[in-house]
Amino acid sequence: MIPWLGEEEAQAAAEAVRSGWVAQGPRVAEFERAFAEYLGVPHAVAVSSCTTALQLALIGAGVGPGDEVVVPSLSFIATANAVTYVGAVPVFADVEAATGNLTAETVAPLLTERTRAVIAVDQGGVPVDLTAIEALAGPRGITVIEDAACGAGSLLRGRPVGSGAAIAAYSFHPRKLLTTGEGGMVTCQDAELAARLRRLREHGMSVSAADRHAASGGAGVVETYDEIGYNFRMTDIQAAIGLVQLGKLPAMVARRRELAARYRSLLGPLGERLVADPAHGTGNFQACWLLLPEDAPDRTEVLTRLAAAGVSARRGIMAAHLEAPYKAAARVALPNTELLTGRSLILPLYHTLTEQQQDTVVGALRAILG
Ligand SMILES: *Cc1c(COP(=O)(O)O)cnc(C)c1O
Q: Which of 171, 269, 339, 346 is positioned for an S-S bond with 50, CB 3.0–4.6 A?
């Protein structure tokens, strides 16, 4: 993934620096308002990453030691790690092979008395069917948190992913579409929860440093610290870049969808093995992955031969239960997770990819896979 950054972002960052206000301040507030408006949600709280967004989301959902949280193993490891950070146990559910996402069917067998939350991921930008998972979890008092790290610009039943969730988390790392260098956002529906998340990201302070400064130049307003918080703030420099990037999001999604469709048609029968929109939504093709056919060489060999042809593809999405910290953690077999993590690869796809470059990728793939 190559981020689509330009002169406008450079200027916005420079203006933030020149303004003298570089820590969390007016630009963060403006970015939060713009992001909430884009999603159509009442509250957006900017943070330092999606990992910290997920950690705050879990705390906000009341998850702590002794609790279990159902997550897909097929995800960037931060999804499982966030659960571990709050002292709870990640319980790995399998995913659907077609989308790489959890479904109500894969989550249901893992719910226990201890399940406090489910983290549903929009993997690679493919919208997860949150409605179905909420119908399962809601009546049991289990909170569904949406890990929409990859999902900015994807739609679930016509609405931006995450906008229907009680709590959702987004990433602005350069591997995702919209980037601020590092950065994240938590969104939620509830005003009290949003206020608590704002305090938690800033050391548990009752009044933010920016508000105190705005109110009285620092005098008169004395803050209190009613619970232990964190320093999970975003800077105004990052938010300035984010505001520009948010304006470019529709163009980014359109271009990626166009390039993905072109891959599909050029790949012929292989194109049917490319990740596609599910029935319930449209993706942003954050990760444009291809599942290798059964008779294909092993993936390492395919990647090596692609590299020799000048094509830098990547291995498919990782599986946390195959990594050292979670090796003994899987309670059920995860066949689709293991299939996708072992046999898929991610094709080059970025805003400035040319058709000529894309033709090179397709030519190399067809030569290797027949
Ligand atoms: C990238 C990613 C994260 C972590 O995002 P950061 O902003 O880098 O912390 C979490 N979950 C998923 C699904 C991701 O793809």
A: 171
Could you list the residue range(s) of the whole structural domain that residue 64 is in? Answer: 7-246
Q: Are residues 281 and 348 in the same domain?
A: yes
Tell me, yes or no, whether 178 and 322 share the same domain: no
Q: Which residues are catalytic?
A: 176
How far does the centroid of ligand 1 lie from the alpha carbon of residue 52, in Å?
10
| Token pair recorded at residue 255 | 């271009």
CB-ligand 1 contact for 168 (6 Å cutoff): no
Which positions ≥6 away from 306 have C-beta within 8 Å? Answer: 312, 313, 361, 364, 365, 368
Domain CATH for 316: 3.90.1150.10
Question: In ligand 1, which atom is closest to the CA atom of 171?
Answer: 7
Where among 220, 246, 272 does a domain terminate? 246
Q: Is 101 in the pocket of ligand 1 (CB under 6 A)?
A: no
Provide the number of structural domains found in the chain.
Answer: 2
Q: Tell me the C-alpha distance between 44 and 169, whole Å.
A: 10
User: Cβ atoms within 10 A of the Cβ of 367, count?
Assistant: 11
Same domain, 93 and 139: yes
pLDDT digits (tens, 9 = 90+) for 216-228: 665 668 899 999 9
**Nearest partner of 234 among 80, 36, 30, judged by Cα:** 30
- Closest atom of ligand 1 to CA, residue 78: 10
Residues 341 and 292 in one domain: yes
Which residue, by CA, sits nearest to atom 6 of ligand 1? 50
Nearest to 82 by CA among 370, 244, 287, 320: 320
Overall pTM > 0.70: yes
Order of strands across the sheet with 89-93?
A: 43-47, 184-188, 167-171, 143-147, 115-121, 68-72, 89-93
pLDDT of residue 216: 65
Residue nearest to atom 2 of ligand 1 (CA): 149
12 lies in some domain: yes
Task: Pick the last residue of a domain from 226, 246, 266.
Answer: 246
* Angle in degrees, 0-180, between the axes of helices 236-266 and 26-39, rounded to the nearest 10: 30
The per-residue pLDDT for 56 is 98
Distance CA 138, CA 159 (A): 20
* Average pLDDT score over the chain: 96
Whether 221 maps to a domain, the answer reads yes
